């Protein structure tokens, strides 16, 4: 990807994280942070603590109790993925590289040829493929192909929205210096409105029971927000163990969360007419301990002994996985994939 490519190709922001759980939890967080800093943890060199006195001023979040700030990167995944694909195609032209989308994988089996070599056989909607090595980058959908992960990687449905400043028709006044737009109507931000531009990425924590909102600002003043509010939805079946992203939450659930979101969250936006112009859902894979599964696929098929040297810990010889990132895959996938690639060479 060309690093000079247009806006959004690469932005640098400061990452804010605020807590609203109360003084006791804030003190626990501060104590844990100080302990890790005194222990010399590398990450603490780049992360600053902001106490209650300045948290709201620094973050622009109403009623912020505490905050962490640190370097973060915000980018367009679309440009990143297509930039990587362009490089891969240039380096490994067809038929060496075969990239397929909208291709459903229906089954994975193994076979041994007459030379004694083991192959992974992948049945898809476009036919059958075989490969010596197979990586399951199946995120929340892992259990559909690896049933043993039915209780270990659970798909959940979460919401996201794009919230834009109010753009309203504004007539151009007569006698406006001979402007060619004189007498016409243009679309712009509401007249007289001056609202703080959000130029940071955020994780906004509302406490363990209410989840975390994650936010990326847009150059035009809009924000893209992913919400953990589904935890408050009493209809657990609407989001838990749900891998269907073709249906949104009910209008009542959406309105309850996104209506006036910006006005009640950010200082300086209370009297704005900002509103969500788009709402959608996405599927996240969660794990009981909050950590992803990275490494060889355990159980079944063509196996080798695992660390405990028992049938219970046997692993596939030529199958690896990267899945169950609990919604935080973008921060982990680069090094996780590198680790998986290293394992694949052994």
UniProtKB/TrEMBL annotation:
Ranges for the region named Disordered are 1-32
Compositionally skewed regions (Basic residues) per UniProt: 10-20
Q: Which GO terms describe its cellular component?
A: cytoplasm
FAD dependent oxidoreductase domain location is: 26-338
Q: Which domain of life, per UniProt?
A: Eukaryota
Q: Which Gene3D superfamilies match?
A: D-Amino Acid Oxidase, subunit A, domain 2 (3.30.9.10), FAD/NAD(P)-binding domain (3.50.50.60)
A Pfam family in this protein?
DAO
The name on file for this protein is FAD dependent oxidoreductase domain-containing protein
Species in which this protein is naturally found:
Diatrype stigma
Output the lineage of the source organism.
Answer: Eukaryota, Fungi, Dikarya, Ascomycota, Pezizomycotina
């Amino acid at each position: 990807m060309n690093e000079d490519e247009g806006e959004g190709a690469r932005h640098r922001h400061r990452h804010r994280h605020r807590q609203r759980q109360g003084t006791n939890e804030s003190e626990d967080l501060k104590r844990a942070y100080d302990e890790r800093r005194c222990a010399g943890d590398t990450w603490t060199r780049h992360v600053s603590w902001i106490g209650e006195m300045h948290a709201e001023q620094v973050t622009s979040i109403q009623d912020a109790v505490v905050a962490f700030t640190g370097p973060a990167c915000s980018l367009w995944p679309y440009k990143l993925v297509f930039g990587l694909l362009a490089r891969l195609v240039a380096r490994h032209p067809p038929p060496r590289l075969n990239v397929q989308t909208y291709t459903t994988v229906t089954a994975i089996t193994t076979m041994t040829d007459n030379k004694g070599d083991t192959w992974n056989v992948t049945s898809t909607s476009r036919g059958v493929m075989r490969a010596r090595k197979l990586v399951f980058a199946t995120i929340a959908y892992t259990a559909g192909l690896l049933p043993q992960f039915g209780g270990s990687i659970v798909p959940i449905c979460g919401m996201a929205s794009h919230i834009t400043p109010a753009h309203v028709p504004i007539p151009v006044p007569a006698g406006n210096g001979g402007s060619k737009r004189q007498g016409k109507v243009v679309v712009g931000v509401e007249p007289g409105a001056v609202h703080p531009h959000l130029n940071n990425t955020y994780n906004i924590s509302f406490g363990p029971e209410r989840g975390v909102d994650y936010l990326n600002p847009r150059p035009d003043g809009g924000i893209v927000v992913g919400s953990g509010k589904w935890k408050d939805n009493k209809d657990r079946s609407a989001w838990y163990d749900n891998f269907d992203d073709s249906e949104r939450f009910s209008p009542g659930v959406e309105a309850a969360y996104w209506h006036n979101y910006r006005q009640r969250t950010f200082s300086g936006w209370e009297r704005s007419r900002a509103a969500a112009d788009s709402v959608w859902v996405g599927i996240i894979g969660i794990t009981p301990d909050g950590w992803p599964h990275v490494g060889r696929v355990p159980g079944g098929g063509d196996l080798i002994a695992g660390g405990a040297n028992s049938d219970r810990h046997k692993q596939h010889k030529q199958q690896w996985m990267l899945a169950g990132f609990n919604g935080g895959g973008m921060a982990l996938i680069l090094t996780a994939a590198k680790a998986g690639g290293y394992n694949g060479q052994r």
